[in-house]
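Contributing new records

If you add data, match the layout below exactly. Sequence lines come first and carry their own label; structure lines follow with theirs. Keep one chain per record. Anything else will be rejected by the validation script.
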Amino acid sequence: MQFRSIAISVVAVASMAAAQLTVTTPSAANWWVAKSTNVLQWSCKADNVPQTFTVLIGNQNPAVLVQPMAIIAIQNNYDCSVLITQDQANQAAGTGYEVLLANPINNTDVYARSEAFEIKPLGSLYPTQQAEQVASASAAAASASTTAASSSTKKGNSAAGLGASLVLAAAGVVGGVLAVL
């Protein structure tokens, strides 16, 4: 009898933690665009939320996607949002998609699930808020690459520094410090 009461308490605590974490984007009103960079946001400031989770994409229709597929193995909760590139999630345009935030050790232990959303065809417009976030992140990435290239050129290692900056930009590094010895 005591074991059952402990088990119920553990389930209640786990449910409480899962209820605190919420996927805010994508949603029915904030769709993604196929073969494009898309925004994933969640409620990271809530109490009792897991520190890390795995990000998966699934579809309610098993003919589209048989089971959820991991697109980020371990994501830190404190980031609050992340840009998902076309290399991470390259699903075809369609409806019934959902993003799941799950336990990194057991992906069937889902902490949060997005609303069902649509992935629109390549070339479609983003919702207004998401378009601003993607543009802002792209501008920050371009600025970081330009700053790194400028910094390395001023230090006298222009060929090596510029080459390293281009490699960082090509790898999709959004921010960071490039130190040239």
